[in-house]
Amino acid sequence: MDEIRDEEFLLRHIPGGTTWQAPGPRITSSNFQLRHDRNETGVSVNRLSLTAPDRLLELVGGSVEKGSRVASVKVADVRALGLKVIAKPLPDDEGHAEIQSDTASLDDHTCRKRLRDLFQFIPQTS
Questions:
Q1: Distance CA 51, CA 116 (A)
Q2: pLDDT digit string (tens) for 8-54?
Q3: Which of 16, 31, 34, 122 places its Cα 20 to 30 Å from the Cα of 63?
Q4: What is the C-alpha separation between 75 and 20, in angstroms, rounded?
Q5: What does the pLDDT look like over 53-96, one tens digit per residue?
Q6: pTM over 0.90
Q7: Edge-to-edge strands of the sheet including 9-14?
Q8: For the purposes of burial, counting CB atoms within 10 Å of the CB of 90, is it exposed (0-12), middle (13-18) or buried (19 or more)?
Q9: Residues 11/71, Cβ–Cβ less than 8 Å
Q10: Cα 115 to chain center, whole Å?
Q11: Neighbour-count burial of 38, counting CB atoms closer than 10 A to its CB (0-12 exposed, 13-18 middle, 19+ buried)
Q12: 116 to each of 1, 35, 50, 61, 103, how far by Cα in Å?
């Protein structure tokens, strides 16, 4: 499996709407909640080194017109929370990865809030 270096940056699609973006806009912790009913093992992200922000929006069907934004975080900062980052390439998305629970749990609301605080919106290009 492809090793993800601490220096790399991850991207996450943040949909439009108040569930995902609070006034400001600010990222909400709901963006990092696992959907156990869908058997999610981690939070889907993309490696900036392999997936451009505009391409990420294409892959997830997001659009600036619908309020979608892209946020980024440094891998080392995610790991410092006690979470792991693993590569999980998909057939149409080689840059796909996941943030997964490790010594900290994504089922813990405090952990999700800390993760939320690490992610920063990147400037919109479209």
A1: 21
A2: 999 999 999 888 988 888 999 999 999 888 888 899 999 999 999 99
A3: 34
A4: 22
A5: 999 999 998 888 889 999 999 999 999 999 999 999 999 999 99
A6: yes
A7: 83-87, 96-101, 43-47, 9-14, 69-74, 120-121
A8: exposed
A9: yes
A10: 9
A11: exposed
A12: 27, 17, 22, 22, 18
> Distance (Å, rounded) from C-alpha 37 to C-alpha 65?
29
CA atoms of 80 and 77, how far apart (whole Å): 5
